[in-house]
Design goal:
With 132 residues, this protein is α+β, with helices and mostly antiparallel strands. Helices cover 27% and strands 37% of the residues. It has helices at residues 17-22, 42-58, 92-103; strands at residues 2-5, 8-11, 27-37, 64-72, 81-89, 109-120. The protein has a four-stranded antiparallel β-sheet with strand order 4-5-3-6, with helices on one face. α2 (42-58) crosses α3. It is elongated.
């Protein structure tokens, strides 16, 4: 199905090399981790980044992509201080094992919660927009 709109065309198939690189995987698994923190201070962000870099370092051989990281302070959406990490991976169990191994001795953590969500691509369209 092709839909022509003013100066761009929407296509169900990638037409250019750039569009080929954008093709999403048929199946995708997101793994989200919350590290529930006892306290937040200036060094917490650096410590979380250091630990997550260790997860990345040791996770060689796991097909994953880092999606996002952040810290939610108490009151923004709840009462807990949360460090959150979201990954896309093909091997959620292996990534989960690496993550827990790296955070199990983190004194500032009350607990770690995790969700694993599997998605299936149902549709994908491609288009280019001229900006000149």
């Amino acid at each position: 199905m092709n839909i022509e709109k003013e100066n761009f065309m929407i296509s169900s198939e990638p037409k250019t090399q750039s569009e080929q690189k954008l093709v999403q995987q048929q199946y995708n698994t997101n793994v989200a981790f919350y590290v529930h923190l006892k306290e937040y201070n200036n060094s917490v962000r650096e410590e979380l980044i250091r630990r997550i870099e260790e997860v990345f370092f040791f996770a060689k051989g796991v097909d994953w992509k880092f999606d996002s990281f952040g810290i939610e302070k108490a009151g923004s959406r709840g009462t807990d201080i949360l460090g959150y990490f979201i990954f896309r991976t093909a091997d959620a169990k292996k990534l989960q094992d690496f993550f827990i191994q790296e955070f199990k001795d983190y004194d500032n953590a009350l607990k770690i919660t995790c969700s694993i969500a599997k998605y299936e691509k149902v549709d994908e369209k491609f288009f280019q927009i001229g900006v000149e």
